[in-house]
């Protein structure tokens, strides 16, 4: 009885090994990545294709891991921003008119203008907050 079982296993072993090798020798022809939204179902894969599915919680937003809330470093800013910053610093340091600087003859004229601009910005912010809340 034992001999027949061993004999049957030895005969079947090469056939099983050949079947396993046939599956390994043919890699998939295509790998498809699908992004699902809502209640969509993942499509079925075929013999020559692998389907990888992922879902998005908020499909029209930049993913959280790619969002950058930090300010842009000075070395990565455009020359326009750099020039505007240098111009503003030079105006304040030189006491030019409309800069609210204690240095120079025209520096004091900008203090009232800066207060008015800050007040207008606060009113716009409070108005936008009251419009967005239901």
Record keyword descriptors for this entry:
134 residues; alpha+beta; two-stranded parallel sheet; 2 strands; elongated
Write the topology of this structure.
Blueprint: H1 2-25, E1 30-37, E2 49-56, H2 79-94, H3 109-132
Parallel strand pairs: 1-2
What is the number of strand segments?
2
* Radius of gyration from the alpha-carbon trace, in angstroms: 35 Å
Task: Tell me roughly what share of residues is in helical segments.
Answer: 40-55%
Which blocks of ≥5 consecutive residues have pLDDT under 50?
none
Distance between the termini: 83 Å
Overall shape = elongated
Largest sheet: 2 strands, parallel
Kindly state the mean pLDDT as a whole number? 77
Number of helices: 3
Order of strands, main sheet, comes to 1-2
Structural class: alpha+beta
**What percent strand?**
5-15%
Report the order of strands and helices.
HEEHH
How is this structure best described in words?
By secondary structure, the protein is of the alpha+beta class. The chain has a domain at 97-134. The protein has three helices and two strands. The protein has helices spanning 2-25, 79-94, 109-132; strands at 30-37, 49-56. Strands 1-2 form a two-stranded parallel ribbon. It is elongated. The mean pLDDT is 77.
Question: What's this, in brief?
Answer:
The protein has three helices and two strands, in the order H-E-E-H-H. It is an alpha+beta fold and 134 residues long. It has a domain of 38 residues.
